[in-house]
Design a protein that fits this description.
It is built from twelve helices and 35 strands. It is an alpha+beta fold. It folds into four domains: about 110 residues, no CATH class; about 160 residues, TolB, C-terminal domain (Neuraminidase, 6 Propeller); about 50 residues, no CATH class; about 260 residues, 3-Layer(aba) Sandwich (Rossmann fold), CATH 3.40.50.
Length: about 700
């Protein structure tokens, strides 16, 4: 080999190594959202040989999401058999896999062409084959245990096409019009005329048909409507002998003045269509699940708003009714149980729950006793699906540095295997800093938990800014899950601090509702003492370069803190925020939130609503503020963003107002990909300017 060729190869190798090192030091960018693959809706087949799941990617050029149902084969001893593969047509969106009891059919949701029926079926016993429809089945199927029938929930079908403006004029309206053919406005008499995520105003509820329980032969035909109730039915569950269907519904759902929890569980006889109410306890009943041996019905029960949800079980008699009082299995367990399922021996009920920023699987014996945690680790597990024999579990798992991927384990969480690595390739080219737990105690002795992410390229001895992130709710929680927004800030040379103050979930019911009537007033201590704890633990953070950001309740709290502690924050980003609780109450679709949390309406608690409104202290704000709001947000309507913007602008505080069209309260999670990515970049660039560049 000649010297010149040797030098050439050396330089190629050197520069390749240097480029690789440079790429490895690059953190997560807003545009990396386009590369992210989302795994959800895991469904393991009854015999445990296949796992169906939904895989979603972003199509940047179309500004859309594309979902497909994928499959992972398993060997008889539960090992992955080859790589996961696409199971549905790549040209169509498909999701929501559901197995038939014998595992020969897989139902999916996939709209094709002009066909309004999105429910399709695929045969799994032979390769190939096109998805087909079953006559009469046009909603998500729930097979009977013997496989002979399918139940589903839908509105009753009528021969008449609904008028395009049905319900636009309330039937109890007093006023009249001179020409009904020309009037294209609304006459509203109900309070619920808006719903976040729905761009159009809602019609009068009297014209909306209620979803009822239907049954049909498993091979299709003409469905039979089993119920005809003045309220919506949901959560159908078959009895093990396929004679009854259990379901839940709220008979008071259209009573706009009802503030009680009134959802009940019902039983309908398949042959006689006889209807019965199962429980006389006050409160809401939900998620009925029949034990494999048919002896018991488990369900969740919540006495009232702000009270603990518990898992109950009742023994069933020969008529499918309770043979005695339901037993509370979790009276001394104060976490929030999620969806329920039984173990095959009918001796144990399992459910998911949040615990200290994690999501895990728990179980309790049918006779009661201690609640045991099944899965473990600093992560969030979801979409748990179990084989018919209970020996294998499939689920998704995410942590602070990894988006959700597909996992498989034994019934007790042992022998866990990761089955997909859809995000591994692009993440290998990014430096992703881990989340570090921090815990501190506030004045009443309560322990508060949070996490800190260091900047990409962090070196001790330098000076770094910090952004404190505040979650929404307030009854939700941060934790060990993938937050791209946090890592984009870390990539821009910032510490990121995200705490779970009092009011957060996953720490028990008392912790969750500690802030009743004290929003901002109580939890400001948690944030400010948390900042002190972070500054003490990480002395390289510059206390003069602190930013604060949050959405929804986090946006309210961002406004609150910059008004109450103006000297503590150099910059702020407030998203879908609340600035004025009185005006919010009159324009939101969720008035019941403050009626409960503030113990009354604005005219009953006038001073409290004003005391807890950031606009009452806006004259103190000095932090340059980016305001982000969706124009079709009916949960925290844009009027609150407008008020905050005008107040800051009048006071000559540096402020920008970004209004996103075609967007609801959920923009940061389910909005158009382009708008979602644009939002990430605007937040990043605002903090980069004010915390890294501005003098």
């Amino acid at each position: 080999m000649t010297l010149s060729r040797s030098l050439l190869l050396f330089f190629i190798s050197f520069f390749s190594f240097s480029l690789s090192s440079l790429l490895a030091q690059q953190g997560v960018l807003p545009a990396d959202y386009y590369q992210t693959v989302f795994v959800s809706q895991t469904e393991i087949s009854p015999d445990g040989s296949l796992i169906a799941f939904t895989r979603t990617v972003i199509k940047e050029e179309d500004n859309s999401r594309h979902s497909e149902v994928w499959m992972q084969k398993l060997t008889p001893d539960g090992e992955p058999d080859g790589q996961p593969f696409r199971f549905t047509d790549e040209t169509a969106n498909s999701s929501g896999p559901v197995w038939s009891p014998d595992g020969t059919l897989l139902a999916i949701q996939s709209r094709r062409g002009d066909d309004r029926n999105a429910v399709r079926f695929l045969r799994v016993t032979a390769p190939g084959g096109e998805a087909f429809t079953l006559e009469g089945v046009d909603r998500a199927p729930v097979w009977s245990p013997d496989g002979s029938m399918i139940a589903f929930v839908r509105e009753p079908h009528t021969e008449e096409e609904p008028h395009p403006r049905a319900g636009w004029i309330a039937p109890d309206a007093i006023t009249h019009t001179l020409d009904s053919t020309r009037f294209d406005g609304r006459v509203i008499t109900q309070m619920r005329y808006m719903r976040d995520g729905t761009s159009a105003w809602l019609p009068h509820p009297s014209v909306e048909p209620k979803r009822q329980i239907h049954v049909i032969a498993a091979d299709g035909g003409e469905p039979r409507m089993l119920t005809s109730l003045p309220f919506n039915t949901s959560q159908p569950e078959w009895s093990r002998d396929s004679q009854f269907i259990y379901f839940s519904g709220d008979p008071m759902e259209d009573d706009e003045y009802n503030t009680d929890f009134t959802r009940m569980i019902y039983r309908v006889d398949i042959e006689s269509e006889e209807l019965a109410t199962l429980s006389e306890m006050e409160g809401s009943h939900a998620s009925p699940v029949v034990s494999p041996d048919g002896r018991y019905l488990a369900f969740g029960h919540t006495p009232g708003r702000g009270e603990e949800t518990n898992v109950f079980v009742a023994e069933l008699d020969g008529n499918g009714l309770f043979s005695g009082e339901a037993l509370n299995l979790t009276p001394s367990w104060d976490l929030q149980p999620g969806s329920l399922h039984w173990t095959p021996d009918s001796q144990t009920i399992r459910f998911s729950a949040q615990t200290r920023g994690n999501d895990h699987l728990f179980e309790v014996a049918v006779t009661g006793g201690n609640v045991e945690q099944i899965t473990h680790g600093e992560r969030r597990i979801s979409s748990v699906s179990v084989s018919a024999d209970g020996e294998r579990m499939a689920y998704t798992s995410t942590d602070a540095v990894t988006p959700a991927e597909l996992f498989l384990s034994g019934r007790d969480g042992s022998d866990e295997k990761q089955l997909t690595e859809f995000n591994a390739a692009w993440m290998a080219e990014r430096t992703i800093m881990p989340a570090e737990e921090i815990v501190w105690t506030v004045s009443d002795g309560t322990e508060i938990q949070g996490w800190v992410i260091r900047p990409v390229g962090y070196e001790p001895g330098s000076s770094w800014p910090l952004v404190m992130k505040i979650h929404g709710g307030p009854h939700s929680a941060y934790g060990n899950t993938w937050f791209q927004a946090f890592h984009t800030l870390s990539a821009s040379g910032m510490f990121v601090f995200y705490p779970n103050p009092r009011g957060s979930t996953s720490y028990g019911n008392a912790f969750t509702y500690a802030t009743l009537g004290q929003w901002g007033v109580m939890d400001e201590e948690d944030f400010m003492t948390g900042l002190e704890a972070v500054l003490e633990k990480y002395p390289d953070i510059d206390p003069d370069r602190i930013g604060v950001s949050g959405g929804s309740y986090g946006g309210f709290m961002t406004n609150w803190l910059t008004a109450r502690f103006p000297d503590s924050f150099r910059a702020a980003v407030t998203s879908r925020s609340i600035s004025n609780w009185e005006s919010w109450y009159g324009s939101s679709d969720a008035q019941g939130l403050t009626e409960f949390e503030f113990d009354g309406t604005p005219w009953e608690q006038r001073e409290l609503y004003r005391k807890l409104s950031p606009i009452s202290y806006v004259e103190h704000v000095t932090a340059p503020t980016l305001i982000i709001h969706s124009e079709e947000d009916w949960r925290t309507p844009i009027t609150d963003g407008e008020q905050w913007y005008m107040a800051l602008k009048k006071r000559q505080v540096p402020v920008e107002f970004v209004r996103y069209p075609r967007s609801s309260h959920g923009l940061s999670r389910t909005g158009e990909p382009w708008l979602l990515v644009d939002r990430l970049e605007r937040k990043r660039s605002w903090f980069d300017y004010w915390l890294n560049q501005a003098e």
